[in-house]
Amino acid sequence: MMDFLTQCRAIIGQTYVLDTPDGMAPFLTDQRGRFTGKALAVLRPGSVDEVAALVRTCVEHRVGLVPQGGNTGLVLGSVPDVSGTQVVLSLARLNSIRQIDAVNRTMTVDAGCILQHIQEAAAAEGCLFPLSLAAEGSCTIGGNLATNAGGTAVLRYGNTRELCLGLEVVTPQGEIWSGLRGLRKDNTGYDLRDLFIGAEGTLGIITGAVLKLYPQPKACITALAALPSPAHAQQLLVLMQDCCGSSLTGFELMSRYCLELVAQQFPQLPRPFAEPHPQYVLLELSSSESEQHAIGLLEQAIGAALERDVINDAVVATSVAQSAGLWQLREHIPLAQAKAGKNVKHDISLPVSRIADFIATTEPLLEAAFPGCQLVCFGHLGDGNLHFNVAPPGGMSNEDFLHNQDQVNRVVHDSVVAFGGSISAEHGIGTLKRDELARYKSPVELNMMRAIKAALDPLGIMNPGKIL
Amino acid sequence: MMDFLTQCRAIIGQTYVLDTPDGMAPFLTDQRGRFTGKALAVLRPGSVDEVAALVRTCVEHRVGLVPQGGNTGLVLGSVPDVSGTQVVLSLARLNSIRQIDAVNRTMTVDAGCILQHIQEAAAAEGCLFPLSLAAEGSCTIGGNLATNAGGTAVLRYGNTRELCLGLEVVTPQGEIWSGLRGLRKDNTGYDLRDLFIGAEGTLGIITGAVLKLYPQPKACITALAALPSPAHAQQLLVLMQDCCGSSLTGFELMSRYCLELVAQQFPQLPRPFAEPHPQYVLLELSSSESEQHAIGLLEQAIGAALERDVINDAVVATSVAQSAGLWQLREHIPLAQAKAGKNVKHDISLPVSRIADFIATTEPLLEAAFPGCQLVCFGHLGDGNLHFNVAPPGGMSNEDFLHNQDQVNRVVHDSVVAFGGSISAEHGIGTLKRDELARYKSPVELNMMRAIKAALDPLGIMNPGKIL
Question: Which of A225, A382, A465, B207 stands the most exposed, by the fewest C-beta atoms within 10 Å?
Fold first, then answer.
């Protein structure tokens, strides 16, 4: 039996088998720099057949594989463990857009395509690929699919799962499943596609996908509303959806503290209101008709909200620059947080109807456990998804506070589960939340997941130690 | 060990264990009357706990279970085989709407709820549950979920899978999985929900679901367009979506022959055009704003289509009665077919961009194999879904033609697969298409399905013989 790495070199060429510390380093640490693993090698195949041949070699030698796209994940799902026995399999060289079908409104892509390139290729055909998130300049669609990524367009277009019609997957046996169907309706057996989506590479390696495209909206406008409370934000969401239907494409909640943090750290950014308000909602409306139509619709909805005392005030962006400025406020919250110091982050979701009650219940629990701690609460309220982050009390060092991370998680996640929510809305499980998953999922559900993992990957070579 | 039926009676009461021929008869024959099975008994539990207890009893006695909702399926998926060793487990008594959350826009229901009752309950809260199909007065949501039913609203709202956020399932071990989440985002492990949806009861019994609701549109208008060819219909779809975005909620293709058949069999129905045209498209637009808005949008789109010679002519319904009349034309096609005689039916889907080529290629193949046969081609073109039915040549008896069913299927399904399509768009596999599935699916995909089935239902008691 040939040596494992010799076999890998024979398959993909010496250049693409990285086994020096310098060569491997960029693939071993997660994006936030919280964890560094070790690897036997980093493998960079250039085709689906090469991926399949590498997997068969891993099977032969019982080597665990960690699939990696842009390595922008937030739950340590795309880096190897510290054993040094696993290989990283980078999909980055599989980066072709294979086909665009503007009539079927589909695009067939390699898993290693950067999300932004896919957005641009769709736009060049007059179409929209709606998935949009902070890492879009470096994340890959394979990673988006493996984690069922969310982002800012879920309200209208759904998660990555809803944007995918077909997959190509290399199985844990090193076979190629060609499920690249561009069909809106297909009821021929079990839904393997949705099983691989969100499985974080633990059931197989996604190598290609057929994505859904949409008509490009003709206009997109933005407004910022000021509100008395999260309960008012819930009411505003119902009102906006009743008025605007699917034209409502963005609905982002930000607390007063979030915008104060942004103003402190980025004083050059706009301050839309003279006086502070307890809560803000960033609204985005898209129209398939015209800018005039979008503005008319938005003004009518805002008028109704003012009249019914659902909002205190609102500003509508009247230029692209103003619109970008409002979105910058939202996008700078995590950056302002990072500049201000460490905090304990949560990526949670709740039934939209429970959000105000959840915040009202959980904030006092945190205050009781960690007097003076500061809640940084913002997120995609339209999807029930909050980034519910907790910053240390004034005077406490970041390090001291991070020692309490598990207790902070316990307060927040216990409350989330009590309100019927999820401890991971859009980031996945990886290794970061694996113990939390085991704590909160029912044994019935965990046993079904383990049975599926064992059935499809009996040797346990696919992204070992992630999720389960 | 107690006798099996005695145990069942102890769990659900004597009244709800049917074992006489008369009592069982309504549950043993499929809706189209093509097949009658035999059963040990029909079990009618009244609660989820009773379902679970019955499944555990079936496990103990190794008795196969056939879950049944409204028994309106079209692929023999909800009737037992002829062995007489299986039981039918009817979910019909689980028919409560458990909760409606108008802010979260969700409804939690028992699996045995009739689809139409769910639609009505949503409407009473000012909401829309968009799933709509011919059998809605008698089919149950559990069956809709088990088969991932399609229907006329898929273009805008997706299949049943896209309308479901959470499930409650009794597993093949008789445990209850409580996955009744009302969350738009939840990335906590494998997507079990979508695995059970569309599995036709072969992996577990769906007993409850959380469904997505939408705002009720303020207006909905209908038009009928006349076109030279299916290729023009493809162009019209692109044009309508570019003009109207998600306001386009219906797009149904009907050939000249379809409407002639309807006119022959139902002469009282409207005839919108004085002269015949090769193809027709039924268009439906919904507006979250007003009727005026919908009409304006539709007239603008139709104007553009006429200007670019995409359509020959169009009539817009100006009243609810006219709109209903246009939909009746579409809905009476299968009824007219049934009155005119038997035919070989296909429920296929294709990439929307391939539909015209598929029809142009396949019609001559059928004509060559069965000279004089008549194609009855209509369906949800917006989803790429055609009901591509073949009627006997004039002079050939229905019976003689039905002897050719397998050969007709071979011509049509070979062509579907060559064009990248699906042999079952919205009806599922059941036993009717099980051999076709085995013929057309890749061994890689079939093996993954079999591995999942064996992992979750190792005793093989869940709807044995269906799909695989």
Answer: A465
Q: Do the Cβ atoms of B103 and A245 come within 8 Å?
A: no
All structural domains of chain B, each given as residue ranges with its CATH number in brackets, are 4-90 (3.30.43.10), 97-215 (3.30.465.10), 219-339 (3.30.70.2190), 347-431 (3.30.70.2740)
Nearest-angstrom CA–CA distance, B383 and B399: 33
Chain A segment 333-362 residues within 8 A of B by beta carbon are 349-354
Looking at beta carbons, which residues of chain A come within 8 Å of B384? 104, 183-185
pLDDT in tens for each of the 468 residues of chain B?
469 999 999 999 999 999 999 999 999 999 989 999 999 999 999 999 999 999 999 999 999 999 999 999 999 999 999 999 999 999 999 999 999 999 999 999 999 999 999 999 999 999 999 999 999 999 999 999 999 999 989 999 999 999 999 999 999 999 999 999 999 999 999 999 999 999 999 999 999 999 999 999 999 999 999 999 999 999 999 999 999 999 999 999 999 999 999 999 999 999 999 999 999 999 999 999 999 999 999 999 999 999 999 999 999 998 999 999 999 999 999 999 989 888 899 999 999 999 999 999 999 999 999 999 999 999 999 999 999 999 999 888 888 888 999 999 999 999 999 999 999 999 999 999 999 999 999 999 999 999 999 999 999 999 999 999
Chain A residue at shortest CA distance from B382: A184
Cα distance from B291 to chain A (closest Cα, Å)?
13
Residue of B nearest to A293 (CA): B293
Instruction: Kindly list the residues from chain B whose CB atom is less than 8 angstroms away from the CB atom of residue A429.
Output: 187-189
Q: Residues of A numbered 91-110 whose beta carbons fall under 8 angstroms of chain B's beta carbons: which are they?
A: 101-106
Please report residues of B whose CB lies closer than 8 A to that of A101: 351, 353
Q: Does A441 touch chain B (CB under 8 A)?
A: yes
- B215 to A424: CB separation less than 8 angstroms, yes or no: no
Q: Do B246 and A246 touch (CB under 8 A)?
A: yes
**Measured CA distances, B59 to B54, B457, B466 (Å):** 9, 10, 18
| Chain A residues within an 8 Å CB radius of B420 | 181-183
Check: complex ipTM more than 0.90: yes
Number of cross-chain residue pairs from A and B with Cβ atoms under 8 Å apart: 277
> Which phi and psi angles does B232 have, rounded to 5°?
-65, -35
Sign of the CA dihedral running A9, A12, A16, A18: negative
- Touching A: B residues 362-391, CB under 8 Å: 380, 383-385
Cα B82-B85-B88 angle, rounded to 5 deg: 85
CA A232 to mean position of chain CA atoms? 26
